[in-house]
User: Which sequence fits this backbone?
């Protein structure tokens, strides 16, 4: 999160009055938040730096839309998530994930997750993260972002809907559809083991 | 989800993934990020302003076209209704007069 000494209202007012130094201060104060969001949604192979820059470009251009009654971090986080979503939409989706595409550790994590022997620490947990990233990379951009916000970051449905700028009922429907796709992928991967 | 085992498997995987966040997030922005953004904003601004102007022109054109279509529809309806409504023919009186002995 941002520095405790950072005065968002003052900084925003100064940026709006054309103070470039205040914008640098805003970027310095909020960068860890933006970097964390971009790193959670985009893989290292994707252009994270471009997405971060696009986020701040939108922040600068839409600063007049910011209402000071809401925390600046929430507003910037929403812009960052949507910049990630747009970046993912431009990325060519991976072909259908097969068991042969998984590394040995990912494959072991998948079997362990079904056998309830997975450990929350150590190599299996790290492999679980790789496997989850692998599964999400095969989904459509909106599905991947939705699953990441709701299932991984444990955000409420309301918060997820607000972040994405969607209605609650649309978010519920999209989440159910995204989970069905995750389920289909896992069933296929687990089915391939039995062959 | 239909298969509870798959549900549980996904839950365990996401729980494990949550406990293993990505590598450390940098605290400081890359050198010159804010300046690059400011430069990009200044380069993009004139284009964006013209985009906004174009959108406004398109909006007004659409509104005018809609208004013109409505006027046309109303006048066509008036023409049609006047054709359908019975009214005396200008030859009625002539024919009557010629037929008189």
Assistant:
């Amino acid at each position: 999160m941002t520095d405790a000494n950072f005065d968002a209202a003052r900084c925003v007012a100064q940026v709006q009055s054309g103070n470039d130094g205040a914008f640098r201060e805003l970027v310095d104060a909020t960068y860890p938040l933006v970097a964390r969001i971009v790193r959670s949604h985009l893989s290292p192979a994707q252009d994270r730096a471009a997405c971060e820059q696009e986020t701040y470009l939108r922040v600068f251009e839409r600063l007049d839309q910011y209402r000071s009654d809401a925390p600046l971090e929430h507003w910037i986080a929403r812009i960052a998530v949507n910049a990630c979503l747009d970046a993912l939409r431009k990325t060519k989706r991976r072909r259908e994930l097969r068991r042969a595409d998984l590394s040995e550790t990912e494959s072991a994590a998948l079997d362990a997750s079904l056998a309830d022997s997975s450990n929350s620490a150590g190599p299996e947990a790290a492999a679980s993260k790789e496997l989850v990233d692998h599964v999400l990379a095969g989904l459509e951009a909106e599905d991947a972002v939705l699953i990441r916000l709701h299932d991984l970051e444990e955000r409420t449905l309301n918060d997820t809907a607000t972040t994405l700028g969607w209605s609650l009922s649309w978010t519920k429907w999209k989440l159910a559809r995204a989970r069905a796709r995750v389920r289909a992928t896992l069933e296929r991967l687990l089915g391939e083991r039995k062959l | 989800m239909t298969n509870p085992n798959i549900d549980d498997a996904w839950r365990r995987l996401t729980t494990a993934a949550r406990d293993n966040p990505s590598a450390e997030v940098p605290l400081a922005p890359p050198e010159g990020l804010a300046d690059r953004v400011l430069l990009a904003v200044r380069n993009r601004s004139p284009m964006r302003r013209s985009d906004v102007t174009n959108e406004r022109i398109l909006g007004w054109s659409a509104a005018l076209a809609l208004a013109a279509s409505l006027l046309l529809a109303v006048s066509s309806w008036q023409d049609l209704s006047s054709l359908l409504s019975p009214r005396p023919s200008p030859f009625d009186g002539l024919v009557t007069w010629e037929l008189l002995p």
